[in-house]
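Lab notebook page, bench 4
Experiment: in silico fold of construct C2
Operator: M.H.
Input chain length: 460 residues
Purpose: comparison with the prior construct
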Amino acid sequence: MPDKNPATDTLTQLRAGELAGARQLHIAGGLTTFPREILSLADTLEILDLSGNALTELPADFDRLHRLRILFLSFNAFDHIPDVLGRCPALTMLGMKANAIERVSGASLAPTLQWLTLTDNRIAALPAEIGNCTGLRKLLLAGNRLTALPDTLAQCQEIELMRLSANRLEALPSWLHALPRLAWLAVAGNPVFAAEEAAGRANDVPVHVDWDRIDVQEKLGEGASGVIYRGEWAQTAADTPKPVAIKLFKGAVTSDGLPQNEMAACIAGSGHASLIPVHARIDNHPDRTEGLVLALIDSSLGNLADPPSFASCTRDVYAPGQRLTLAAALRVARGIADAARHLHARGIMHGDLYAHNILYADDGRAFLGDFGAASFYDATEEAYGRIEVRAFGLLLEELLALACHERDASPAEFAILDGLQERCISEDRDSRPAFAEIVAALDDVVTSLSQRPTLARPSP
């Protein structure tokens, strides 16, 4: 008996009126034409996911979905963005990753957009009208054929995250790193920094290990760029095998960029206490998969936060009631700031300096991971480093919020940290401190906190 098609079941429910009043709808399963039954939900539908089909067009009256806020059309067969989407009055998020899009007309971009994902397409140029999307906060364009960016994008002053990796950009416009709120930028895999990338890739790990000498065990996790396993490895036949983490890269374009750029940056940036050590590069995988042998991090450490949600857009999501002591928050902040200083000194911008990419313990031990958005750049161009300072400032704001229950007990330290945080997120890029200055300021606060007399406990 053949497997049931979920798409067919959903359409049957629609036609029977069983989904009347639905606010969300997901149909995946080989659709080649848009099911007009969806338009019957015009007065309620807010989120529509038609990813994983074979759609090439939308109906001219698609904008009847006047409450639609979020639309996913990824992994379809569109060669353009339908113009009707520009007329959708409430559309704030559009995802059309991995289609075959070559044309983007000015009419297709709703001015209400805040989050636009066009990763892994064939786009050679963006229309000037994208500058009308003045509320745009996230723009993901990795894996296209862009040779330039329209100057009108400078009007999008709310942009916080931009992915431009794996394009054909020979230069980056001066207005890009002057965008006042830009905090997370990825530009790897473009000709503009080809020399820096070549130099970075030359910094390979000295140890290469044959795939047959690795004992791969259970899967620990999976991200956009690869899969991580627990394993064992001995550098020589005489060594006792030790527990390690093994990351195997998928080799496809992710929303951040190309996995080979991630691997190069991870290798070149290693050597700091708050970065996960890289032990070896894996050779001779039977499927020619690239991979790394990494230190296995204590399983008691967990992610500091979850990635941004639809609602938070660019800001991480923390567990309800989550707390840190001020001392632990400072230890996290200091470790991550110094790791960023270390990377920038090597001409590497992490590009995704977020709490969800930090493994931490309650005592403040922390490791910055996930180099998927990392880029090599000319370290003498301080403008790029100051972009990442803003990302750190937003992280510091969140860390201080986790420790806010200690504000009354440490007013002087919080006053200094609040001032530092405000400088880091300044919309005047040139007024932001460099990471070396940030680390020094955090060290001063750590010293101040350690020198405070401990209150004597009352006698039992």
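Observations: Residues 332 and 365 are 6 Å apart (CA to CA). The longest helix spans residues 382-402.
Next step: discuss at group meeting.
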